[in-house]
UniProtKB/TrEMBL annotation:
This protein's name: MEX67-like NTF2-like domain-containing protein
Entries under SUPFAM superfamilies matching the protein: L domain-like (SSF52058)
Any single Gene Ontology cellular-component annotation: nucleus
Organism: Trypanosoma brucei equiperdum
Feature: compositional bias, Gly residues: 51-63
Length: 528
């Protein structure tokens, strides 16, 4: 089990992250120009074997080594085009891919009639080539003037290839998009900050702006116009600083709850929960992906088609059997709460795979826990705490009595968890008992950042992606380090906006230009 807590409070690795580069080229956008712990992580293993293997051909990359993929000619031509023109259509600094007027490419003359962004097969071939050449570097995509009627086809292909996570800007101007069906897949683009659909019939609909803004909540700009969303007034989270007594409670839970669940020591776990304990596991979005990611990051890229099908079926079983409280539709429901010591431990067992022995679990705990001791007017010493982290389901089927994969090499699926627990101390003052355990799970969409660092389950305002969002929304003229200085000096988003409107807006133009380019000058303004 990992030991994420340090005496200094919080994780003992720096919280800095190297993030995405630069702004997007607006001229192009508008067509005008083991993972056990974050603190002792093991390096990823190299890819095992080949993608081939015996068994019937599947939808993905399985099938026999001689399997001929569909649309081989188109895929080959697209691949050759990307090899030849990669430096022209893709900007590595900004991550911008420009596919505007794509059918007019001289290299696609022989198949020009087949270049159809409304065709599922073409979009899948195109996206497979994009993934092969750009992969996680992709940040912005322009598909202007491509006779697109149904943008959802191309967007769905990006989602299927898991390329949608990193995309922050999308332009599809000058097409013939005439309905809002693209909103469905676009909601999956959780980091999309800018969308440009000008010169499309759909923009003339009365409900166009309101529907897009309401349903694609990450957007900051629509058709080159800033979306005015009320800034948050809640204080920004700050890293935890815990006392030795608080750490002792966390160490107890780490050993007797998290490690016991991971190792299947159910008797130990039962002893920690009180006789009248309550346990619930809640979600809003589905935390276990319906489409299992078969890639190197999840150690599942080398599975053959048969293994992939079995793994998928096992996770379908898991999703159906976990006693979720779905907060989208059952916010007031009490039917999925496990009442009593035995039922609480059984529910935790089911969450870890239950009767499916192919599963084992592990936890990656974040050091920013919150621990509060309640003593005033309390007959029994009580502690309420919240722990954040990542839950891993490792998949390793058994063959001949032996697991096919060792734990560190087993394919896995993960999600983030936030767990709030209420504990009481026994009369001797020696042992804590869990009385209420509420667990909330949400998807882990980005296992690792560009730098190789693991994505954190916690939100901090000075996260590089967040800094860039704030800069683009409120102060696009400022340098990134200047915006970081502002965000770290105030306590909320609303304070950022207040400082810009009440202080920076009153500066003479020459002084403002200097302040927006020098973080030390901005720091002096904030301190003054």
């Amino acid at each position: 089990m990992s030991r994420p807590y340090t005496k200094g409070g919080g994780p003992n690795r720096a919280d800095s992250r190297r993030r995405r580069k630069g702004d997007y080229d607006r001229d192009v956008l508008t067509d005008r120009g083991g993972h056990n712990s974050s603190w002792n992580a093991k390096p990823d293993r190299s890819r095992r074997g080949s993608r081939g293997g015996s068994g019937p051909p599947g939808k993905g990359t399985g099938g026999s080594d001689n399997q001929v993929p569909q649309s081989t000619m188109m895929t080959t031509l697209l691949d050759l085009l990307f090899q030849k023109s990669s430096s022209v259509i893709f900007n590595r600094e900004s991550g911008m891919l420009n596919l505007s007027n794509f059918s007019q490419s001289q290299d696609l003359t022989d198949v020009r009639k087949s270049v159809d962004f409304n065709n599922v097969t073409f979009c899948r071939s195109l996206v497979s080539v994009i993934k092969s050449h750009m992969g996680s570097m992709l940040r912005a995509v322009a598909v202007n003037h491509n006779k697109i009627t149904k943008l959802s086809v191309f967007l769905s292909a990006l989602v299927e290839a898991d390329l949608h996570i990193g995309i922050t800007a999308l332009s599809a101007t000058g097409n013939t998009i005439d309905d809002l069906s693209f909103i469905g897949p676009l909601k999956r683009f959780v980091n999309l900050g800018e969308l440009v659909l000008k010169e499309n019939p759909v923009t003339r609909r009365e409900d166009y702006n309101s529907s897009v803004i309401q349903k694609v909540k990450s957007l900051m700009m629509l058709d080159d116009k800033v979306i005015n969303r009320a800034p948050l007034r809640l204080p920004n989270p700050i890293p935890s600083s815990l006392s030795q007594l608080q750490f002792q409670v966390l160490y107890f839970l780490e050993a007797d709850v998290f490690s016991a669940a991971a190792e299947g020591k159910w008797d130990t776990l039962t002893g920690v929960y009180a006789k009248n304990a309550l346990f619930s596991v809640s979600r809003s979005e589905e935390p276990i992906a319906c489409r299992i990611p078969f890639d190197a990051k999840h150690k599942s890229d080398a599975l053959n088609p048969t293994q992939r099908k079995v793994m998928t079926d096992d996770f379908v079983f898991l999703r159906k059997n976990v006693p979720w409280r779905n907060l989208h539709v059952e916010i007031h429901s009490l039917r999925s709460i496990a009442c009593g010591q035995t039922k609480a431990v059984k529910a935790i067992n089911i969450l870890g795979g239950g009767e499916r022995k192919f599963f084992s679990v592990s936890h990656e705990l974040n050091g920013n826990a919150n621990v509060v001791f309640l003593s005033d007017n309390m007959a029994v010493p009580t502690c309420v705490l919240t722990i954040h982290g990542r839950l891993f389901w490792h998949w390793s089927p058994i063959d001949g009595g032996e697991k096919i994969f060792a734990r560190d090499d087993a394919p896995f699926v993960s999600c983030f968890f936030h767990r709030t627990m209420s504990l009481t101390l026994d009369p001797n003052g020696t042992t804590w008992s869990v009385h209420n355990d509420m667990m909330f799970l949400r998807p882990d969409r980005l296992l690792r950042q560009e730098s190789g660092e693991k994505a954190l389950p916690m939100f901090f305002a000075n996260d590089p992606m967040r800094i860039e969002e704030m800069r683009r929304r409120y102060l696009p003229q400022a340098k990134t380090d200047v915006m970081k200085t502002i965000v770290e000096a105030v306590s909320s988003d609303a304070d950022v906006v207040g400082f810009i409107q009440n202080c920076l807006a009153k500066l003479p133009p020459d002084q403002l230009e200097i302040a927006l380019s020098a973080s030390d000058v901005m720091a002096n303004l904030l301190g003054g």
